[in-house]
Fold this protein.
Amino acid sequence: MAGFLGSYRHQLDPKGRVSLPAPYRRGREGESFVLIQTQPDALSLYPDEAWGEVQVKLREMSERRPELRNQVLRVTAKAVEVIPDKQGRILISEKMRKIVSLETEVMMVGAINHIEIWDPQRFEEMTKLIDNEFDQLIDGVFA
């Protein structure tokens, strides 16, 4: 599988459900995802296999650096399993929507091994910032 690519705007329904874009669902029928806040402005949605890799890293970190155990718990306490319904929708709890200011519309962005869920306006503001670091990324990957 090519990973998660592209970006898609979708409406949140009154219950907080949003449809996953068809390319993100393809080949993942019946698969569960883990929804978690890993950054201040966005939620992250990990498919099972990618979440398994994250769990391994979290467990190893807890074992190598016991002083980070509480931080690992802080991260995992916010995680929830979501399973798309027959229409391909997932539920984003009211609590999670408020944390990252999701109201009526979301921007779903492919982040290779997971999907990020943003408020569209915040995402546009963040991606408008083109700077030297962006140029370095482009040169380092595509040159």
Remarks:
- The radius of gyration is 16 Å.
- The domain at 7-142 is CATH 3.40.1550.20 (Chemotaxis protein chec).
